[in-house]
Structures are given as C-alpha cells and as structure tokens.
Amino acid sequence: MTPKDYSEFWERESSQFASDNIYAHLRQIVPTEATLEVGCGAGWSTLSLATNRPVLAIDNNAHLIGLARSRLNTHGVNAEIIQSDLFEPSDDLLKAIEAFQPKVVVGWFIGSHPDDNDKRTPADLRIDQKPKVYRENVEDRLVALPLCPPSVEWVHTVQRGAAPPGVSEAQIKDEMAKEYEKYMLINSGFTVTDVQVLDWNQGATPFPYVQTARPDLPPGKPKPVIISILARRMSNV
Q: What's the pTM value of the predicted model, to 2 decimals?
C-alpha cells in the first residue's frame, strides 16, 4: 500500500467515522482550547475540531493533506496544516508549535502506510504487530517535547480495538487506564482522567482488519470498539 493508496483507504474509513458521528463525539471529550492535531488524515477530524477551536494539524502524507485542505475549504473552516515527519520535525513545524502554544494535543486513530510502519518499528516484528507498535511509538511523542510543550494541559488519544466476550466495559476502562499509566504516560507528568468505550461500526468498511491472536482471552467473537483515553497534566517533569 503506497502513501496514495493509504490516503484513499483512510478517506473511506474516516468518512464512515464522520457518518457515524464519531468525530463529533470525540470533539466533545477534549476541552475547547487551542489544539495540536497529530495526523490530520483526510480532514474529517480536523474539520470537527476546528469548528469550535483553533487547530494546528500535522501529517506526513501529502495526499492526505490535499484531501484535508480541500475538505476544510469546502466547509469554510480554517485550520493550519503542516507537512512534516513527527519523528523528525521540520523547522517550520517547530516554529509553528512554538507560536501556537497548544493547550491540547490529540492523536486520533494513529496509523500510516507500510513503509512508515517498517521505518519506525523493529525489523524483526511480524507484519501484524507493526501497526500497534507504530501507534505506540507515536503516542509516546504526544506527551514529550517538541510536540508537547509546557503549554499543553491535555492529551487525547483514540484507537480501534476489540472487546473480548465476557469482559465488561468497566474492566476495559480499568485495564486501558492502567496500561497507559504504565507505558505512554509514565514519567510524563500526565495522568488518565477519562476512558470511554464507543461502538465501532467495523462492518461498514471493506478493509480486512487483522486481530492478533490472544490465547489469554476468553474464546468467542470479540466486539469492535473505539477506545478514547484523555489525560491531564498534573505536573511538569
């Protein structure tokens, strides 16, 4: 899948999220403050955020940026979008973040095409493991300089997943909070303040998602879900 192929896939996928009002729901979770969006995608998320707050968005895929800018223009909504690799931020991006002084950083449905996944993950990983590790590598950067300057008070990340049969929503929330505190947020000064589990209309997309086998989980068909993690800065470390 090339960067252009990926942009076409994400256009279809994110359009479905927009139709299901997922972006509208996610927008309501995060405080209405100046927001740095890591990954503008096809622009549906940017459009949703920018309807009620200033937005500075980043993406490294020129095809997606073109879709996003066109979508914002069509709806008459303003947001600045900068093309940059977040692992190797450009000078333009660093200057823009310094001038923007974001209060919120969001990373919704983090992902990329296979070349990015290969470049930013260990070579010995299986292909089905790479998207998860890529997402985790990006999430680690959401709470660290330069993407997260001292002005940032809130970080919001959203991922797709699956709820095993027999596991309650309360259990999912508790486990996700513990996982993020242990890994992404450790020594960051941020702590989880809210976890939400939303229905994911996975059947509406033709993309063949692959679930990694988990022998430690109960047998049966898992339920597709979207998991929202909101964290707040409690201290500067």
A: 0.93
Dihedral (Cα; 163, 164, 168, 172), 10-degree rounding:
-50
- Torsion angles phi and psi, residue 57, rounded to 5: -115, 150
Rounded to whole angstroms, the Cα distance separating 208 from 127 reads 14
User: What's the pLDDT score for residue 221?
Assistant: 82
d(C-alpha 224, C-alpha 160), whole Å: 8
- Read off the amino acid at residue 185: L
Cis peptide before 208 (omega within 30 of 0): no
Please check whether residue 230 is in contact with residue 30, taking contact to mean a CB–CB distance below 8 angstroms: yes
- What is Dmax (Cα atoms) for the chain? 51
The enclosing H or E element of 193 equals: strand 190-199
For the stretch 120-156, pLDDT in tens is: 999 999 998 999 999 999 999 999 999 999 999 999 9
CA 225 vs. chain centroid, Å, equals 14
Nearest-angstrom CA–CA distance, 133 and 138: 9
Q: pLDDT (tens digit, 9 = 90+) per residue, 182-200?
A: 999 999 999 999 999 999 9
User: Residue 227's beta-bridge partner residues?
Assistant: 159, 197
184: how many CB neighbours lie within 10 A of its CB? 22
